[in-house]
Amino acid sequence: MAVIYHEASKPHERVMFNVAIFHFFVPAILFGTRTPWLVVTLSLLGSLAMIASIAYQAHSSQQQTELVKAHWQLAWKRCQYLLIAYLVAAVIFGIGWFLLSMQADQAMRMIQRSVLGWFSLLPISLALVALIVMEGSALVQARKGVMPADMRL
């Protein structure tokens, strides 16, 4: 029975790994580089790869118990929140970039782009905090063998 509970906790561990590595560790290491696009690109690509692996497991879990399958699907559902946050951040950044392209003063444009970058990270930051709380709770439930209430199959 403990093996099943361990298998049920894997999707939530993978989500937490994604948050820890690609949203905290990689940006912290690359923060001092002179190429900010590298921080964004590596973090985003790594995170999308992890989310894709979770989606794959959630949709191709024929040989798993209902408990394990429900936890994979719950992790995928919560990863969709992160994908939505990525999209909202990209829209905010895109609209801001377009509006700032009309700024005549080059020095002021650079300052405004820096502020815009921080504001566009806000949806992702809020989604990460929510994911950490929700996935921490789901991880505890999975390790106890509790079926997620909203994911009964």
Largest sheet: none
Work out the number of β strands. 0
Determine the fraction of residues in helical runs and give it as a percent range. Answer: over 70%
- Mean of residue pLDDT values: 87
Indicate the proportion of strand residues. under 5%
Sequence stretches where pLDDT stays below 50 over 5 or more residues: none
N- to C-terminal distance: 19 Å
Give the overall shape. elongated
Number of domains in the coordinates? 1
Q: What is the string of SSEs from the N terminus onward?
A: HHHHH
Integer-rounded radius of gyration: 19 Å
Category from helices, strands and their pairing: mainly alpha
Count the helices. How many? 5
Description of the structure:
The protein has 153 residues and is mostly helical. It has one domain (2-145). It is built from five helices and no strands. The protein has helices spanning 2-30, 36-59, 66-100, 106-120, 122-144. Helix 1 (2-30) runs antiparallel to helix 5 (122-144) and helix 2 packs antiparallel against helix 3 (66-100). The mean pLDDT is 87.
